[in-house]
Amino acid sequence: MSNVFSEARRIARESRNYEPLTALMPYARFIGVKLLEVDGQTRALLPYRPSLIGNAQMPALHGGVTAAFMENAALMQLLLQLDETRVPKSIDFAIDYLKPGRPEELYADCRISRLGQRVAHVSISCWQRSPDQVIALARGHFLLTSTE
Fold this sequence. Notes:
By secondary structure, the chain is an alpha+beta fold. The protein has helices at about 1-15, 20-25, 25-30, 65-80; strands spanning about 35-40, 40-45, 55, 60, 90-95, 105-115, 120-125, 135-145.
C-alpha cells in the first residue's frame, strides 16, 4: 500500500492532479471531496449536493458531514506534505461550529501547526462564500507512521 501512497503523492506534487490521492480516502471519495491549489496552497472543496443537508427546515448542511470533510481535508494535507506510507490515524478531533452551513459548496484550509516525530497537530478553517466568514474551526491530533 505504501507504493500506492507514494505514487499518488508524486502525481499530486508534480502535476497538481489530486484525484489519485483523494481516491485513496474512501469517505472523502464518498462525499466528493476535491483538492484545489489556490495561491500555491492546497485547499479542500466539498461540492454541494442535496444529500448533504441535515436540517431541511433551515436548510443547513449536516454537521457530521462538515466535521468529516474537515477531518479528511486535514488527513489529505498531511499525506501531501509529509512522506507518510499510510493514512495518519486520528487521536482526537475537536470542532467549533460557528454558523450553519448553507446549501452551497464548502471549503477548508488546513495548517500543520505542530509536527513531531509521531504526532501532528492540524488547524482547519471551514468556510463557504469567503475565507473571512468562517462557519467552523477544528483542530486535530494525528498519529503519524512510525519510523521504527
